[in-house]
Design brief:
Elements (H helix, E strand, L loop, with lengths): L4 E4 L22 H12 L7 E3 L6 H4 L5 H8 L6 H9 L10 H20 L5 E4 L21 H13 L4 E5 L6 H7 L5 E8 L26 E6 L7 H8 L3 H11 L5 H19 L3 E6 L18 H9 L7 E5 L5 H15 L15 H13 L29 H14 L13 E6 L13 E2 L7 H7 L11 H18 L3 E8 L2 H15 L4 E6 L13 E7 L11 E5 L7 H19 L3 E6 L7 H11 L7 E6 L3 H11 L15 H14 L15
Parallel strand pairs: 1-2, 1-3, 3-8, 4-5, 4-7, 5-6, 7-8, 9-10, 9-11, 11-16, 12-13, 12-15, 13-14, 15-16
Helix pairs in contact: 1-12, 5-6, 9-14, 10-11, 10-13, 10-18, 11-12, 16-17, 18-19, 18-21, 19-20
Bound molecules: 7-[(3-aminopropyl)amino]-1-sulfanylheptan-2-one and zinc ion.
The site of zinc ion has 8 residues, from loops.
């Protein structure tokens, strides 16, 4: 199994810059790379990566995505005078040339291809290429938006050509629409292109009609192009104009705060749960390319978004469950040097396997984001079975110019200037990973190769009166069984290791999983955290739920569950769940993940009480996704000695990417209906469950 994270950087790519005055281009500066590189170095992250040399792309490689005439034209720029460069630049939009930019553009492509080689040959598991110029706006015969050659487009074409792969997923989380990528792959069903971008009903750059959600791809490529437009923009009602004239800095700040309309982490995560991940799992990619632009982070002069840098640690982690973890991230935009550097560090730290930091304060996606989510799901319903039963009454038909009051540029500039001075955000919390990743307790005789890299924990068996004290549980005969008392002692010492931050997560194979789960929850609540998420696969849920919210129980069962009104008890009844992998996944993505993010637990207990409910691969996928929470503090409890389940659980807890679920059939409609029913019931309490705007129930 491949391991290791590649990091590609060459300071040569800092040796070009804007040589004349152009307000649209002045933000694309060499310091973008140096601050990112230095931040990775100072955080001790670059030292944990595998450095790979960059190289110049060959002409043949560049011609995979660009025309000969365009290449010939760009080839002439190194010998041009300043005037000639300015004239040459005029033919394109929002981009600039420099005598050394051709050289750097070849290095940016070459770095991306080196990364693809290393991942596809298994030399590394994943990696990041820190490059400039960016690429996702450049087209076959045209430079655009600071981009000269389309690094990620060439990487995808190169991967198809040299590694014979047939399904590449491109995730473009840059705040601009990568129209160059859309044009390149819109007829290609082998490359699924997903982009979210500021759009504001075509008022935001690059102002293209085809950046809207109804551009779904063409011909054979229909369904393989997904655009998620962000349409909320500051309403510059004329009366604000009057106000501005009498506006001092304080009032401007207030005005900005009330207008701050960028998207935040709740919006981003909702799009992953309800749009990108369902399709990505159904597409079942063999490779993930990320057009990693960080102008979608807070503080960016282009993006004006509110999502703080740690969100990129989560987006990265969620994508690492796909394609066997083969993920190549290539830098695109990102112009606030502080949030850029922090976001780059968050991304690399997750690629290295460190647990994402807890994200508190998530709420629900804003109304505009819900409109976009609903519109995209409607537009793609005919192409992806994961949206088959989705509640989508198509949002106002696409391209409607919202009756927005035209912006007042002078005031808008004033707001923007004021805004840039005002935006501050907390440093991302440090994400220390305990020295030992996985502790394991299991009955003797269950040795297994993968378990050797786990840290063996054996506790002192509990005495019956200790149990009476520790375990608020009616005395049952099992509590006299010395195997049970031993396993409770083992779990206690495992939890203590986690508590002491010696161990990140753990696995316990137990004789009685219900007692173990009850004991684990109660001990975690007394000594570790005030919120425990219990994910229980089996029909008899162990714990009585106090409605105080200190335990959230998500129970996957196969028998009709009890009716419940509780917002902390979520029974998910799935019929034939072991065969309906798509139905299981739908429950995980559209229900379990949004709930867990909204609940923000300090500890996760993942309990497999009944091995027949889901297959080993689906379970391993779940264990991987659950490590997004609680700084990776996951305790898996398994009853019985299903060796395959034990092995995949340990492997996933150790950070091995779960193997892929393979092509997914349509989920059983009764299972989708059961999940949708629960989602409808709970979405008023847990906003991340929402997928539709207010007016369209
Ligand atoms: N023509 C009116 C001003 C528009 N500004 C355009 C800036 C292009 C941004 C490109 C970028 O960030 C790549 S990721
Ligand atoms: Zn951008």
């Amino acid at each position: 199994m491949a391991s290791g994270t590649a990091l590609l950087y060459d300071e040569e790519m800092t040796r070009y810059k804007l040589l004349w005055v152009d307000p649209a281009c002045k933000i694309e500066v060499p310091e973008r790379l140096t601050v990112s590189w230095e931040a990775l170095h100072n955080a001790g992250l670059s030292g944990r990566c595998i450095p790979l040399p960059v190289r110049q792309a060959t002409e043949e490689e560049i011609l995979l995505a660009h025309s000969q005439e365009y290449l010939e034209a760009v080839k002439k720029t190194p010998d041009m005078s300043l005037e000639e460069l300015m004239t040459f630049t005029q033919q394109y939009g929002d981009v600039y040339f420099h005598p050394n930019i051709y050289h750097c553009a070849k290095l940016a492509v070459g770095a991306s291809l080196q990364l693809v080689d290393a991942v596809m040959t298994g030399k590394v598991r994943n990696g990041l290429a820190l490059v400039r110029p960016p690429g996702h706006h450049s087209q076959r015969s045209e430079a655009s938006g600071f981009c000269v050659f389309n690094n990620v487009a060439i990487a995808a074409l190169y991967a198809k050509k040299h590694f014979k792969i047939q399904r590449v997923l491109i995730v473009d989380w840059d705040i601009h629409h990568g129209q160059g990528l859309q044009y390149c792959f819109e007829e290609d069903p082998q490359v699924l292109y997903f982009s979210w971008h500021r759009y504001e009903h075509q008022r935001f750059w690059p102002n293209l009609r085809e950046s809207d959600f109804d551009s779904v791809g063409k011909g054979m490529g229909a369904g393989f192009n997904i655009n998620l437009p962000w349409n909320k923009a500051r309403l510059m009602a004329p009366y604000f104009r009057g106000l501005l004239e009498h506006c001092d800095q304080k009032c401007l700040t207030w005005l900005l705060a009330s207008l701050q309309v960028g998207m935040d982490s709740s919006d981003y995560l909702s799009v992953f749960f309800h749009v990108l991940l369902p399709v990505a799992y159904e597409f079942n990619p063999e490779l993930i390319l990320v057009s990693a632009g960080f102008d979608s982070a807070v503080g960016d002069p282009e993006g004006h978004m509110c999502a703080t840098p740690e969100i990129f640690g989560h987006l990265t982690h969620l994508l690492m469950s796909l394609a066997g973890g083969r993920l190549c991230a290539v830098l695109e935009g990102g112009y606030n040097l502080t949030s850029l550097a922090q976001s780059v560090c968050q991304t690399v730290q997750t690629l290295l396997g460190d647990p994402p930091s807890r994200i508190s304060g998530l709420s629900s996606p804003c109304e505009s984001a819900l409109e976009s989510i609903q519109s995209v799901r409607a537009a793609h319903q005919q192409y992806w079975v994961c949206f088959k039963n989705a509640d989508v009454s198509l949002w106002p038909d696409p391209g409607t110019k919202c009756s927005r009051l035209e912006g007042d540029t002078q005031a808008e500039e004033a707001l923007k200037e004021g805004e840039m001075r005002e935006i501050v955000w907390p440093e991302p919390p440090s994400r220390l990973a305990p020295p030992i990743r996985t502790g394991v307790t299991l009955p003797a005789g269950l040795e297994d190769d993968v378990l050797t890299s786990c840290f063996r924990v054996t506790g002192i068996p509990l005495t019956p009166n200790q149990v009476a004290k520790e375990l608020w549980h009616p005395a049952v005969p099992e509590l006299k069984d010395e195997k049970v008392l031993q396993s409770l002692g083992d779990i206690l010492s495992l939890l203590k290791e986690i508590e002491k931050k010696e161990v990140r997560n753990g696995l316990a194979v137990v004789p009685n999983v219900s007692l173990a789960a009850t004991f684990g929850v109660q001990h975690a609540l007394t000594s570790l955290t005030d919120r425990v998420l219990l994910v229980f696969l089996g029909n008899e849920a162990p714990v009585e739920l106090q409605e105080d919210g200190r335990v959230m129980l998500i129970q996957l069962c196969s028998t009709e569950p009890v009716e419940t009104k509780s917002k902390f008890y979520v029974p998910i009844c799935l019929k034939k769940s072991s065969s309906d992998v798509a139905g299981f996944l739908h429950a995980v993505l559209s229900l379990l993940l949004p709930l867990a993010y909204g609940y923000d637990p300090g500890m996760i207990l993942a309990v497999m009480a009944d091995c027949s409910l889901v297959g080993a691969v689906a379970w391993a996928q779940l264990i991987g996704l659950l490590q997004s929470f609680a700084q990776g503090h996951t305790l898996a409890l398994i009853q019985g000695a299903e060796k395959e389940i034990i092995r995949v659980t340990a492997a996933s807890l150790l950070g091995e990417p779960a193997s892929t679920l393979g092509p997914l059939g349509p989920p059983l409609s009764e299972n989708v209906k059961a999940v949708e029913k629960e989602r409808q019931r709970l979405q008023t309490h847990w906003g991340l469950l929402q997928t539709t705007g207010e007016d369209h129930p």
